[in-house]
Amino acid sequence: MDRLTIDKINSHLNEYAKEQKELMDQMRGANSLEEERPLREQLVAVDSAIRAFMKLRTSKRKILDAN
Question: Which of 6, 34, 35, 44 is most buried when burial is the number of CB atoms within 10 A of its CB?
Answer without folding.
Answer: 6
